[in-house]
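To the wet lab folks,

You asked to see what we're planning to order before we commit. Fair enough. Below is the target structure as tokens, and below that is the sequence we designed to fit it. If anything looks off to you, flag it before the synthesis order goes out.
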């Protein structure tokens, strides 16, 4: 009995220690597209490791230029451990509605045609191949993306954390003999990514009802956190 009790106490201590020394992975919510497909929006939210503060961020992207809309991203952090995620999301939603109504985005959500959560260990983090929409037999050319990590120098704040990295995102076009097209390549690391040291392709969202089919590649960014690796989300958009 004493051995069982001792083992139970050790397991409990291990669980508490593990929970108290872990980074946080932001939850991802696809908000959708504008009716013409020119805007893509998504949200990330969670509880910040170390501080315990709730946060919510919304990103509104021009799919033609792959640039943020003016006045975005919308970022909310409640510097109060008693404030919950719902309150942070509500404040971010109120600000975001001034840019585009959630109802419009939800009505044109598109299709999640690929998804690998940061917790999935058997997926290829650097390659995703999808059928661009749920039509069977497949009528669209296969959509393939590949990600490459690039060693880059981050800000001075990050120097003590360890090696930093940017990324390069490629699209393989099967309609053009497998031609590789560059979608994005970091030359520097944006300060908004804090101290990133790794990336993975987390998902692909497509929308076919606008002027031309569009896509958004969701990329999980692994950052040096206060208590462990943190995961945040960014997106690269484009037209098919």
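Sequence we intend to order:
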């Amino acid at each position: 009995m004493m051995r069982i009790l001792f083992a139970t106490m050790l397991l409990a201590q291990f669980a508490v220690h593990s929970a108290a020394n872990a980074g946080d992975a932001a939850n991802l919510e696809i908000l959708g597209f504008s009716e013409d497909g020119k805007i893509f929006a998504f949200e990330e939210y969670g509880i910040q490791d170390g501080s315990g503060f709730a946060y919510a961020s919304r990103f509104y992207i021009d799919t033609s230029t792959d640039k943020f809309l003016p006045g975005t991203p919308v970022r909310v952090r409640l510097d109060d451990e008693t404030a919950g995620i719902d309150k942070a999301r509500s404040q971010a939603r109120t600000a975001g509605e001034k840019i585009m109504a959630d109802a419009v985005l939800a009505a044109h959500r598109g299709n999640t045609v690929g998804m690998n959560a940061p917790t999935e260990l058997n997926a290829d983090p650097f390659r995703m191949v999808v059928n661009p929409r749920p039509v069977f037999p497949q009528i669209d050319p296969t959509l393939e993306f590949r990600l490459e990590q690039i060693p880059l120098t981050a800000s001075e704040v990050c120097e003590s954390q360890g090696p930093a990295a940017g990324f390069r995102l490629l699209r393989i076009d099967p309609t053009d003999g497998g031609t590789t097209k560059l979608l994005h390549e970091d030359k520097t690391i944006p300060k908004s990514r804090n101290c990133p040291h790794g990336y993975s392709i987390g998902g692909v969202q497509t929308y076919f009802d606008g002027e031309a089919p569009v896509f958004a590649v969701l990329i999980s960014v692994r950052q040096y956190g206060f208590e462990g690796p943190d995961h945040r989300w960014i997106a690269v958009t484009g037209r098919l």
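Structural context that might help your review: The radius of gyration is 20 Å. Residues 23-239 form one domain.

Thanks,
Computational group
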